[in-house]
Amino acid sequence: MKNSVKLHSNKDEYPGFLRGALMWRGSVTPRILTGLLLISCYPLLLVLLDYYWLPLPHMEVTPFEYTGVVLGLVLVFRTNAGHERWWEARKIWGGINNQSRNLVIGALNYGPQEGVWREEMLKWTVTFSSAVKESLRNGNNFDNLHDLLSVEDIEALNSAVHKPLFVASKIAALLEKARFTHQIDGFTFQILEGQRILLVDYIGGCERILKTPMPLVYAIKTRRFILIFLLLLPFSLIEKAGFSTVLVFFLVAYPLLSLDRIGIELQNPFDTKNLSHLPLHTICDTIKLQCLALFEKSQVH
Question: 9: closest CA among 271, 275, 264?
């Protein structure tokens, strides 16, 4: 899993133009190369057929100039829709980060001074982000929490129907316990409970992105448009380009298939198999590190 994160997660681009343009790792090129080479055999067969066996009908290139513009707009819309999902997911995880810290700060400063309660609040608040991560990825990897969770805690977490809600209910129970024993007043309880509710809302946001793919009807039409465009394109090139038709076809098909693939890669920003997926491991580790630092600081005072 860690290797996968290093390989595909989103990283800063290189400042150097040439190095960035020639990057292989993190590019969609390896994922479309086989299909691109196979489809490029199509114009080669047409050229050979036209030259040596049966002359083919030729078309003007003008219609492809106009349809190419339309096709470009369609693909840009598809790519933008994918990026919008990716960016929304990143904002949601920024919210999970912020609310986790707010909840820990509020619990440590306004909650009971009882050591066990404070440790439990810290433990389950830190666990929440990892529970969301594993829920979105259908996993049970809580190795980064072995220093906080007991074996029984991890077993209970893994057996839960919905891991994030299980953790959220633990936090709710701790807040209710503090309110019931009058260790926090009603106003403080409402503030801390509001932070917990926001965390649950963020689960819904992530699940909306995960379980709502791009409309199938739009994906079908986009790819059908690309296919028709590429199938007819060689007939407008053979007469003037000859065997160079294959190269021109390759140069046209490469960006079209790349943009189509980028739209697919961005649709699910949580899946480690997708390029530039969100670095959820890093975000969870950051939440844990910062919350532990807050706890240690509170212990000193």
Answer: 275
Handedness of CA 141, 146, 147, 153 (dihedral sign): positive
Is residue 199 within 8 A of residue 168, CB to CB? The reply is: yes
Angle between helices 216-241 and 62-110 (to 10 degrees): 140
Q: How far apart are CA 226 and CA 245, in angstroms?
A: 18
pLDDT of residue 94: 96
Q: Which three-class secondary structure string do you get for 161-203?
A: CCHHHHHHHHHHHHHHHHHHCCCCCHHHHHHHHHHHHHHHHHH
Apex CA 191: angle with CA 188 and CA 194, to 5°? 145
- Give the tens place of pLDDT for each residue, 31-78: 999 999 999 999 999 999 888 888 888 888 778 877 888 888 888 888
Predicted confidence band at 107 (pLDDT cuts at 50, 70, 90)? very high
pLDDT tens sequence across 124-143: 999 999 999 999 999 999 98
Eight-state DSSP code of residue 12? P
Give the helix, strand, coil percentages of the chain, each rounded to 5: 80, 0, 20
- Residue closest to 156 by CA, chosen among 138, 165, 147, 175: 165
